């Protein structure tokens, strides 16, 4: 079989609409199973939506389910205690505007490479706690009907350098309320992303000291584990790119892996931070693009003590997703790709999510299937390729 010709045909043909069920088509045609796992929970395919402005309401989640995503991470909720107090309240502000802009790589390996970034000054969920719980419940229901995993994301209290106490009531109340919603729909453990956002990197009051960041990474899993629902939560830490060296990123990863009360999985790695760029009157913004994936991939290549992880960061092609897979990721979450202009997609009409899946999977040059088929040839694999197997295979080579 000339797989390249088959891919080219499929890419053209499916620009009208993806085959359904997507996963069965790919298994029967290419002998590739897309089934994978997120935090140890089975997912039908490894492609998901990262937490943010595109997972703020049930209509967005509904469209993603129709398009066929494997999972959706909801917008980050700012934790609160029983009385409604939020220590991270400064993050509970609404987004005003977002700008999708071209960006050029500056790191050596990607210097001059063109990509995309989204600039904005918003932060976390800005509506009420109750509204988030309703949204989570609705989303879980949508997910259950379509076989799409839905994951909440939370920003809990983090002490500043010198601050001795942790507001454990925020950890208890918020996690228990989210788990209550989960339990109504499902009887397994609830994955949860703890967001350490890139804006923390720019907030000198919070993250000017490395020791303080390492302390957060060690303490947060323990605090979550010690909540009344701690044994039924799969704890995921979404690691940010701190304003230090790549070596420090590795120290952060080590702090997660070595910890006795360690997290179950990581999400690696959230956006870079530019302290000098201004947007809409705010100095210092997060950014992505080629530098983000290059930094993430180079740090992940050096990470020896691996934990299960979901990849994020400039996943705009299946080829970049495949690079994360080679470093052990079993799922891939995107934000910027789902905001790109129409001209970036071969598929017209349909939802942005379906167009993105078409591009990620079937693109004959930079698609995910193309990379997997090439690897199958190179390594002489039998036809039953699976994502978790490949995620174990590649790191074992290094
Ligand atoms: C507009 C915007 C809003 C975001 N909001 C959140 C958020 O609320 N919580 C979070 O954990 N990550 C948030 N992120 C980070 C994304 O989830 C994602 O990890 C990051 O943008 C890297 O992926 P990308 O290169 O595909 O955009 C946001 C990103 C963007 C661009």
How would you describe this protein?
The chain has 398 residues and is α/β, with parallel strands linked by helices. The protein has a single domain, classed as Alpha-Beta Barrel (TIM Barrel), CATH 3.20.20. The chain is built from 14 helices and 16 strands. It has helices at residues 3-13, 22-30, 58-67, 129-146, 168-185, 198-202, 204-207, 210-225, 246-258, 290-302, 318-326, 352-362, 368-379, 387-397, and strands at residues 32-33, 36-38, 41-43, 47-49, 71-78, 98-104, 114-120, 149-155, 190-195, 233-238, 265-268, 272-279, 282-287, 309-312, 329-334, 385-386. Strands 4-5-8-9-10-11-14-15 form an 8-stranded parallel beta barrel, surrounded by 6 helices. Strand 4 (47-49), helix 3 and strand 5 form a beta-alpha-beta unit. Helix 11 (318-326) crosses helix 13. It is globular, with a radius of gyration of 20 Å. The protein starts with a helix and ends with a helix. 49% of the residues are buried. Bound molecules: flavin mononucleotide.
Topology record:
Elements: H1 3-13, H2 22-30, E1 32-33, E2 36-38, E3 41-43, E4 47-49, H3 58-67, E5 71-78, E6 98-104, E7 114-120, H4 129-146, E8 149-155, H5 168-185, E9 190-195, H6 198-202, H7 204-207, H8 210-225, E10 233-238, H9 246-258, E11 265-268, E12 272-279, E13 282-287, H10 290-302, E14 309-312, H11 318-326, E15 329-334, H12 352-362, H13 368-379, E16 385-386, H14 387-397
Parallel strand pairs: 1-16, 4-5, 4-15, 5-8, 8-9, 9-10, 10-11, 11-14, 14-15
Antiparallel strand pairs: 2-3, 6-7, 12-13
The protein binds flavin mononucleotide (FMN).
